[in-house]
Every structure is written in C-alpha cells, then in structure tokens.
Amino acid sequence: MNEFTENPYIIRSLYILPDEEPVVKYLNGTEAQMEELVHGKIASAGIEEGVCVIHNALSELLKMTENRVIDGTQFYGPMIVVSFDNVGNIISLTEDDAEYFAEQFALKK
Length: 109
What we know:
The chain is α+β, with helices and mostly antiparallel strands and 109 residues long. The protein has helices at 3-6, 31-38, 95-104, and strands at 11-16, 23-27, 42-48, 51-56, 66-70, 73-76, 79-84, 90-91. It is globular.
C-alpha cells in the first residue's frame, strides 16, 4: 500500500524541474508547500480540461530556467501538474493522467 492509498487527502501530482524528467510527487495541498516547490508565489494555467500547471507567478521576471513549452506558452522554473474539480479545488491526477502527462512532458531525446 502506498502513501496515496493510505491517506486520501494526499494529492498525486507531477513535479517537473527544468532539464529533468517529470516525477510523481504527493502533496498535502497547502499553498505553502506548493510555493516551496516552485520557489515563490504560485500561479496556475489550465492546460487541458480539468488539469493545470502550477508555477511561480514571477518566474519569467526572476529569470528562472526555461522548463517546458505547453500549447505555445513557455514556462520557467519548477512546475506542478495537478487536476482540479468543477469549483477549482486541486485534486489528484488519476494514475492514467499522471502517466499520460509524464510522457507528454518527458525530455525530448
């Protein structure tokens, strides 16, 4: 049994650092934890229905390292990919979504 099945309040996400492969990371869903992971104030951008990227709101101004281009938008610094519900609450990626986005955001070789 893994951490996710033991505690349903833990959120499955993908954590993506520049020049690294995406990794599954389990979050407690607090703003403070997400700010720590993206190194500053958070912002989000929808990338697909029910899925968003959480990133540093000032990453471009802070000249953070380029990370990934998604639908023509360049993201800088660390990113977190999560799902959200119909009222905007962050929820876990499904296992299938985690695998799908890990493939989508894998480094191109």
